[in-house]
Structure formats: structure tokens, C-alpha cells
Amino acid sequence: MTPSPLPLLYSYRRCPYAMRARMALLQAGRPFEAFEIVLRDKPAALLQLSPKGTVPVLRLPGGEVLDESWDIMRWALATADDPHWWQAAQSPPNLALLQCNDGVFKRDLDRYKYPERFLDEPRSREAVRADAVAALLLPLEARLQDQPWLGGEQPCATDLAIFPFVRQFAAVAPQWFSAQPWPALQAWLAAWLDGALFAACMTKLPSQQAVVCPAPRG
After folding, report:
1. Is residue 176 one of the residues assigned to a domain?
2. Are residue 63 and residue 102 in the same domain, yes or no?
3. Residue 59's domain spans which residues?
4. Which residue ranges does the record assign to the GST N-terminal domain (predicted)?
5. What is the rounded radius of gyration, in angstroms, for the C-alpha atoms of the chain?
6. I need a surface site. Which of 10, 26, 130, 157 has the fewest CB within 10 A?
């Protein structure tokens, strides 16, 4: 692939880690090239940059490679015009929520969404769901009852980082999720789902082809 003056993001549309990286780049207004991979035919260039072969992977114009989504978000947002997006995410409560999301919640989310992949899981699916709720969703509901975003009166990188995983959890059993007594969390999720940033993030791109994303903010 011919080197580009723009950052090149290897991504997969439905991957929550790639989703939060794309949203951060879009929010920061950073133009980039997006390369939508096919999971069963990962490009050799991706594997050369990051042998673990997972997305997202961001190749910067100078050759530096970022292959962790939070590092990509940091690169996009830490020097953005609005410093609140990154600074508010560095508070101890928000860092703790991120750690929970990427740790115990993601573990249980996988077992809840794909029980057929975890046949040796000793807990029932309902118990797995209850543990995921207790670990992250109830703390989120409590936080969001006092403020509209995890960043306070404005969103921050923590909102972006956690949203794709809560979206995935809610989509497993939408009627059950909507029936839960979590008005603040449900309003927060709906605001992201209905927002222009998420719509831009989920624009369908051709597979195995680098496409320039101008990343307009709106």
C-alpha cells in the first residue's frame, strides 16, 4: 500500500474497540484513512504493523503505530481544540469505569452475548448478565443520575470508550434492557445512538480499501 500523508486506521465496523477509536478521531476533527478489514482475510500490511492482528491499528504518517484503542483515543483527543474531552476522562472515577468496562464487564458481556463460545462457564446466562449489570451498569446509572455525561455537563473520552460496549449489551435483549429501571443510563445510550457522531462513525465503507474520512465535526 502506498504511504499516505494521513493517518491510516485499520478498523472493523462492528468492533467496539474500533468504534471508539473512529468516534474519537471524528470528534477531534482529524482527517484519516480508514481501511475496513475482512476478519477472515486480514491484510498482510496490518499483520506487519501489529502481529496480534486485532483492530483498531493506527499507522501515523511518521511511521509510529498505535494498536490499542485507548492510545488512539489519546492521540486524537489529548491535543484537540477542546481539552475537556481528554482531561475529564483522567479523573479517578472515570479511569475506574474504563478499567471495569475493559475488564470484568467485557468478560461478562462476551459470555452473555455468545454463550455458545463459553460452554465451560459455570454461571447461568442470567447470572452472567446480573454480574455485568452490578459491575458497570448500576454504577453508570448512579453517576448519570447526577450529570448527563461521564464528563459532567459535556461528554468526555470515557463516554466514547464505554458507549459501544453498553450498546452491545443492550442489543442482546433490547426489550429486557428497555424495561429496566435505569432512566439515566437509557437516556445516555439513546443520546449516543441518535447522535451525528455515531452516525458518522457507522458509515459503511468498502472492504479491503483505504477510504479518506474527512472527519467533520457536527
Report:
1. yes
2. no
3. 8-84+198-213
4. 5-84
5. 18
6. 130
Does residue 35 sit in the same domain as residue 127?
no
Dist CA 41 CA 155 (whole Å): 36
From first CA to last CA, the distance across the chain in angstroms is 31
Return the C-alpha cell found at 73: 483515543
Q: In angstroms, rounded to a whole number, what is the distance separating the alpha carbons of residues 198 and 75?
A: 19
Mean pLDDT of 93-120: 98
Residues 133 and 93 in one domain: yes
The pLDDT of 105-116, averaged and rounded, is: 98
pLDDT-derived band at 80 (thresholds 50, 70, 90) equals confident
One domain, residues 40 and 114: no
Q: Specify whether 113 is located in the same domain as 184.
A: yes
DSSP string, 176-212: HHHTSS-HHHHHHHHHHHTSHHHHHHT----BTSEEE
Burial (Cβ within 10 Å: 0-12, 13-18, ≥19) of residue 110: middle
What residue has cell string 429486557? 176
As for how many domains the chain has, the answer is 2
pTM for the structure as a whole: 0.94
